[in-house]
Design brief:
The chain is mostly helical and 210 residues long. The chain has helices at residues 16-22, 28-46, 52-78, 85-91, 93-101, 113-127, 133-159, 165-179, 192-197. The protein has a domain at 28-163. 63% of the residues lie in helices and 0% in strands. Helix 2 (28-46) packs antiparallel against helix 7 (133-159) and helix 6 runs antiparallel to helix 7 (133-159). The longest helix has 27 residues, at 52-78.
């Protein structure tokens, strides 16, 4: 028996208040974070806190760092099976179980705003003691850009057909995680970390595209 329900939205909470805030319009992260990153980047450059060369060099490092975070958050937190229901809600594990149950619920394809703000704040707080804003601000900005790319790719893989061969491979990579083996293919915006970590699974030719 399949443990997922296709082409439907599901209800996560009995409380209408919690249910309302558990749903996210897919444009919401971009409406919030693109202006924030542009403001932070422009302010940092105009104030000469960081040079254009420093920004161009460090921002990609932040982007790649998010891809590492994405892999380990997905694998270690979202697929964590221990803890109390409250702890599992706080770590995102319960929400991820719901996403696997209703993979086509288009109101839950991007990270909730409260979660992204909390995560961005924690990362900023960890970077603050380093005392090198010329490097940590571009690094933080790159992490946020990587997160936005992740949200966009996750929404795309569930909501629309890919336009390129790379997009089709990436979508098949993620659909295999959903419908064939949830213990593999943890990368969403990429496949290479699964290849490095030995958690990649290639779908057989006989498997039906979901």
């Amino acid at each position: 028996m399949k443990d997922y329900i296709r082409h439907q939205r599901g209800r996560m909470f009995e409380s209408n208040f919690l249910e309302f805030f558990s749903r996210v319009h897919p444009a919401a992260p971009f409406v919030l974070w693109i202006p924030v990153v542009l403001y932070v980047a422009s302010s940092t450059l105009l104030n000469h806190t960081s040079t254009p060369l420093e920004f161009a060099a460090v921002l990609p490092l932040g982007f790649v760092t998010w891809q590492l975070l994405e892999y380990f958050i997905h694998k270690k937190l979202f697929h964590w099976t221990g803890g109390s229901p409250l702890v599992r809600q706080l770590t995102g594990a319960e929400g991820h179980v719901f996403h696997h149950r209703y993979p086509d619920d288009d109101t839950r394809l991007v990270m909730p705003i409260a979660v992204s703000i909390t995560l961005a704040t924690i990362i900023a707080a960890l970077l603050w003691p380093i005392g090198r804003p010329d490097l940590t601000i571009p690094f933080w900005s790159g992490i946020v850009c990587g997160y936005l790319w992740y949200d966009f790719m996750h929404w795309s893989q569930h909501y629309r057909k890919p336009l390129t061969s790379w997009g089709r491979r990436l979508r098949a990579h993620h659909m295999s995680h959903h419908f064939n083996d949830p213990d593999t293919n943890f990368g969403i915006s990429h496949m290479y970390i699964d290849m490095i970590m030995g958690t990649v699974r290639r779908r057989a030719a006989t498997e039906v595209e979901e």
